[in-house]
Amino acid sequence: MAMNKRVPPTFCFFFLVLLVFFSGEMMDMKIRGVAGKSCSGTESWTGFCDSPQTCTNKCLQAHGVKARKAFCDQSGTAYPYKICNCVYVC
User: Domain range spanning residue 54?
Assistant: First the structure.
């Protein structure tokens, strides 16, 4: 007589955890690329610096939750406008 063996629930849970972990690692490798490059950077716009909040809003509008820091730089050639710099990451 054949016996039906059930897979223990702990094994299923362990397998599911491993699957989620490795799928996240694969996605991270896909984003960063084989060489480990990140897709972070800085984007700049002329203007948007009449107040620090305007620069921050422009940065958030362009990059959403990936935006990390927005700051105004007056070293641009388009005086009296300042340069709004936005630092973002993936």
Answer: 41-88
How many structural domains are present in the chain? Answer: 1
Closest by Cα among 45, 39, 82 to 61: 45
Q: pLDDT tens digits, the chain, 90 residues: what are they?
A: 556 677 677 766 666 665 566 665 544 444 444 444 457 788 988 878 887 789 999 999 999 989 999 988 876 555 566 788 999 987
Assess if residue 4 is contained within a domain.
no
Question: Is residue 52 in some structural domain?
Answer: yes
Q: CA of 75: how far to CAs of 7, 28, 44, 85, in Å? A: 66, 36, 12, 11
For 60, counting Cβ atoms within 10 Å of its Cβ (0-12 exposed, 13-18 middle, 19+ buried), the class is middle
Q: For residue 47, give the amino acid letter.
A: G
